[in-house]
Amino acid sequence: MSLIDDFIESTEPSSSQRYANPYSANSLSHGFDHVDPIMLETGYISTGFAQDDARIFSLDPVQFPFPDPLVAMAVSNNVLAMALETNHVLRIDLQQAHEVEDIEIPRKPGEGRIYKIFFDPTGRHLIVTTEHGENFYLYERWKKAKQLARLKGVIIESIAWNPLTSTSDPSTLPILLGTRTGLIYETTLEPTDDFFRREEKYLKQVYSIHELGMPITGLHFEQFPASPRKYFVVATTPTRIYQFVGTAVGIAGGGAGGVTGEEGRAVFEGLFAKYDVNPGFQELPGDLTHSELHFFSKYQDLHQRGVAQTFAWLTGPGIYHGNLVFGSGDSVIDSTHLLPYPATASDTDPSAVVVSEVPLSIALTEFHFVLLYKDRVRAINQLNDQIVYEEMIPLAAGKEVRRLTIDSVKNTFWIYTNSSIHELLVTREDRDVWRLYLDGKHYDTALQYCKDPAQRDRVFTTQANDYFAQGRYQLSAKYFADSTVPFEEVALKFVEREERDALRKYLLSRLEKLKKADLTQKYIIATWLVEIFLSRINELEDLATSSTPSDGSVPSADAGATANDHQLRQRELEDEFRVFLEAYHGYLHRETTYKLISSHGRTDELLHYATLIGDYEKVIWHWIEEKNWKEALKVLSKQVGREHSVFFFFFSLFPFNVKRRDLLKDHGADVTRQLQRQITFETISP
Fold first, then answer.
1. Residues whose CB falls within 8 Å of the CB of residue 641, separated by 6 or more in sequence, listed in order
2. Maximum Cα–Cα distance across the chain
3. Domain range 3-30+59-435, CATH class
4. Domain residues of the chain, as ranges?
5. What are the pLDDT digits (tens) for 316-360?
6. Reduced to 3 states, what is the DSSP secondary structure of residue 179?
7. Range with lowest mean pLDDT among 85-89, 366-370, 544-548, 613-617
């Protein structure tokens, strides 16, 4: 539902309503009705890959009985303003108003018609300029417009509104005006009811582009996020784009402090001063007489604004666009590209040569360029430069398309002709963005725009296969573990390539993701990992002690490594194996694990595992067999309290094993002496 729909619904007719002008809200109606879709419960779970036929872009026509041709239109913060050929301005608050306000712009015979209107982001300040340079100011609920005497004779082509303005401050704060003659002025407008007081607190020319007859078709400025007094200004003509970076005094903090009045120094004067001699610009020659400059920011809410991230400039050769990077240098415009306009075939003669038609107007969304032509509207995806939408604009005989206008605060888009209005509805613009980023191998960005697990799985699978094909097996293992590719298929991939390190990483990741109930899978994978760890540790140990290069059985990652490299990697892997045992010893079969570790001759790892599972008898007997009484007693003493006899506890272990009794017979005296010493030590210790 469009904003006009909301407006109409809020304007129910009643007997008590009276309208002060013929353009009542009841005059507006939709050209067609919307039908809500009916969702059926089918039990089908979508994978997210089915073709979505819902249109991202669609035209929503609004019928309004214009008594006179429409000259210009602007929409800001849900307030719509329309300028008619008869010098009337119609203003509608799409959220609250119950009527259309009709304001007449005073003029004398021969002063010319309205040329353009400009709306600030808050929807409170409206500036009207005429063909002969008469300028008028209309503030919020004023019923009459005031002439801006200081701007007499200035035809305004563009305005850079202050991004720091707010609804709590009645003034515009310092703004920049671009004129038809290539001049840039600075002023601050503050509404007043005093007839003898001017709304322009001051007016100062701050720059001239020195291009004879070249209008300033686009003007915009932004505050650097990390430097409140540093600003970036960009200005365009039909063939050039200029950028200015410098310090502006008196704006930081959201007020107009530092502006001392008519004779005071303008806050942008110092910023422009250093560009008087050598201005920086990019030129795209052409014979186009019109041009537009647009910026996009994800955060345009009046209470939480962010700086613009991208821009688009309509030029003769195409759309010049790029990013904005607010760093420490004197250039903010970055990663620029020129997108030629798409070719258009003849509707009447299919055999005619296609031509690239220059749009009348453009708009910039987060992911698309919207191009308005004399009879149609198109949308081009920024990620692949493909036309994703095209629709003819219904025109009566003798009617013509004017241009696009954008409500940047509410992110709505409007197309108007000299007799009609259409809202360009944008629905789920980011629907297919994940797929486009995936096609461009921008995997992390693609994940950010995924809407469901199925789409995320597609990204992980594609990324894993891509890295595997590149030979980046460790990275591939990471993303295979996040995907739903069958376990057996992935494991076989790494086994066939003899990539045991990647296989180990994959198995570890899969083990971490298994649920508590998946006991069988956990036992199998954990046991397999024990074998893989031990084999790789022994392999590295052999490489470290060998002075000859590795043979063909050793993975290529080991080629060229020194003995020290192998030793370091071996120690790292041993530490990793111990951490693994600490985490997953509960999912390992005791006897099987003992046999695996023993078969590889890894005594330290065997003792570590036995300690983890509480098999202290095995640890003690190992130290006895090694005649390391100190270690045996150390382990034993940790298991017996002071109130018990260590000696009798020790002897209670022997009846279960003949070999151990023989050991006791051979070494009993030594063990007894060591135990007695330990008992004595424990007795006298504090």
1. none
2. 128
3. mainly beta
4. 3-30+59-435, 615-686
5. 999 999 999 998 888 999 999 999 999 877 666 666 667 789 999
6. strand
7. 544-548
Render 471-520 in DSSP notation, one character per residue: T-HHHHHHHHHHS-S-HHHHHHHHHHTT-HHHHHHHHHHHHHHS-TT-HH
Q: Which residues pair with 230 in a beta bridge?
A: 247
Q: Which residue has the tokens 């013929």?
A: 22
The whole-angstrom separation of Cα 123 and Cα 139 is 9
Helices (H) and strands (E) in the chain, counts: 16, 33
pLDDT at residue 7 in the model: 44
Q: d(Cα 281, Cα 234) in Å, to the nearest integer? A: 10
Q: What is the pLDDT of residue 329?
A: 80
Contact between 243 and 280 (Cβ < 8 Å): yes
User: Which residues does 15 contact at the CB level (< 8 Å), separation at least 6?
Assistant: none
End-to-end CA distance of the chain: 83
Token pair listed for 562: 């020194």
pLDDT above 70 (res 582) = yes
The tokens describing 332, both together, are 């903010």
Residue in the structure block whose two tokens are 């003949």 = 658
CA dihedral 657, 663, 668, 671 (to 10 degrees): -90
Q: What phi and psi values does residue 319 have, to the nearest 5 degrees?
A: -95, 115
Phi, psi (degrees; rounded to nearest 5) at 468: -65, -40
> Quick count: other Cβ atoms within 10 Å of Cβ 463?
23
27 — pLDDT class (breaks 50, 70, 90): very low
- The pLDDT score that the predictor gives to residue 14 is 38
DSSP 8-state class, residue 21: S
Q: CB neighbours of 456 closer than 8 A, spacing ≥ 6?
A: 447, 450
DSSP classification of residue 68 = S
The residue with tokens 């540093």 is 230
Model confidence over 86-133: pLDDT tens digits? Answer: 999 999 998 875 678 999 998 776 778 999 999 999 999 999 999 999
Given a cut of 70, is residue 4 above it in pLDDT? no
Q: Are 157 and 216 in contact (CB under 8 A)?
A: yes
Are 619 and 608 within 8 A, CB to CB? no
Give the integer Cα–Cα distance in Å for 362 and 359.
7
The answer on pLDDT for 659 being more than 90 is: no
Token representation of residue 441: 């191998």
Tokens of 681: 């030590």
Q: Residue 286: what pLDDT?
A: 86
The answer to whether the beta carbons of residues 459 and 446 sit under 8 Å apart is: yes
Count Cβ atoms below 10 Å from residue 337 Cβ, excluding itself: 12
